[in-house]
From TrEMBL:
Domain Fe2OG dioxygenase: 168-280
Protein's organism: Exophiala viscosa
Gene Ontology molecular function: metal ion binding; oxidoreductase activity
Name of the protein: Naringenin 3-dioxygenase
Similarity comment: Belongs to the iron/ascorbate-dependent oxidoreductase family.
Keyword annotations of the record: Iron, Metal-binding, Oxidoreductase
């Protein structure tokens, strides 16, 4: 199986749009991963971000720690190597987690669900540390929000759904990660040198990933429906797109949230990546999504998935929690336990021990 490339510029060409819709449908239903080309993001927006990443992660540790994730109940900020846990193993990556700015509306007296606390403002480095940091990040987030909405329109039509039937499940906060993987002398891309372990994205409706290193630096792998790990080789000028867990639920399991992982790059070269997660409405329930299940009759659609993929921890898919927001809070606490202990002590044990 190969990972298809979708040329988004074909969406505005009415003579080519029908084939585009067929290609998107194949990518979503039969593969689960795709390259998105001609996405319309200004080259300067991407170049500014890519050039900034090595400078950002080369900053002194105390400067990066000034925006430490553990300080934020919204799980926004910097986390160092080994802080995050995926598939019960420490991930060997450092990262900044950011989002479009929202006000923190949660308090115990507000009556709002606890998962509302996930939404809030970013932590920014002091301006003298990296003056252009905030402007570059906010420009990139705005550009990705536009791409995500344009692509979701194509996706909706490709699945033969009524216009706007999927966009109503998105928002209000989209998230972005700036990620750095150090090379490992022992890495072979066959061994379990975990940059981030096998998982299905839970942080968004759809994920748009920029592989921000030299194309020769591999690491990202996707699990095929036959259980084979495939290299997702960097292709200049493209974004990698895959579906999140909520998308799998709304399509009644037809469009799988594909399992993927990152292995540490071998050799002497660092790897950088920038995933953007299109937001999911936090109060979303499976009951809200069931209105579309009749369209996705499993007897008429391909719903295959490998055994390994079926075993991946997926709380919203499994129906453990009523809302996507609570399922996301549980995932965040389990992944960043220092944040969970500090800001969510009342529910920390409940979520960490929920297997």
């Amino acid at each position: 199986m190969s990972i298809p490339t979708i040329d988004l510029s074909r969406a505005t060409d009415q003579t080519r749009r029908p084939q585009l819709l067929r290609d998107v449908r194949h990518a979503l239903v039969d593969v689960g991963f795709l390259y998105l080309s001609n996405h319309g993001i200004e080259e300067s927006t991407i170049d500014d971000l890519v050039k900034m990443l090595p400078v950002l992660f080369a900053l002194p540790e105390d400067v990066k720690e000034s925006a430490a994730l553990r300080q934020s109940p919204h799980f926004l900020g910097f986390s160092k190597f080994g802080t995050e846990i995926t598939a019960r193993v420490q991930d060997q990556r450092e990262q900044f987690e950011l989002a479009n700015e929202l006000e923190d509306k949660y308090s115990k007296a507000s009556g709002l669900p606890l998962y509302t606390r996930l939404q809030g403002p970013n932590q920014w480095l002091k301006a003298d540390a990296l003056p252009e940091f905030r402007e570059i990040v906010e420009s990139y987030i705005a550009a990705l929000q536009d791409v995500a909405l344009r692509f979701l329109e194509v996706v909706t039509e490709s699945l033969e759904l009524p216009q706007d039937s999927l966009v109503r499940f998105t928002g209000p906060q989209d998230r972005l990660k700036l990620v750095h993987y150090r090379p490992s002398a022992d890495a072979t891309l066959d061994a379990q040198s975990q940059g981030v372990g096998p998982h299905k994205d839970s942080s968004g409706w759809m994920t748009f990933l920029l592989q921000a290193s030299d194309p020769s630096i591999k690491g990202l792998q996707a699990l095929s429906k036959d259980g084979v790990w495939l290299d997702v080789t960097p292709v200049p000028g493209t974004l990698i797109v895959n579906m999140g867990q909520a998308f799998e639920v709304v399509t009644n399991g037809v469009c799988k949230a594909t399992t993927h992982r990152v292995l540490l790059p071998p050799g002497d070269y660092d790897r950088y990546s920038v995933p953007f997660f299109q937001g999911v409405r936090p109060d979303l329930t499976k009951r809200d999504l069931q209105s579309l299940w009749g369209h996705f009759d499993k007897e008429k659609w391909n719903t295959r998935e490998s055994e390994e993929g079926q075993r991946v921890d997926s709380p919203f898919l499994r129906g453990k929690y009523e809302t996507w927001g609570e399922a996301q809070l549980r995932t965040k606490i389990r992944s960043h336990r220092d944040v969970g202990r500090r800001h969510y002590a009342d529910v920390f044990e409940k979520y960490v021990n929920d297997d």
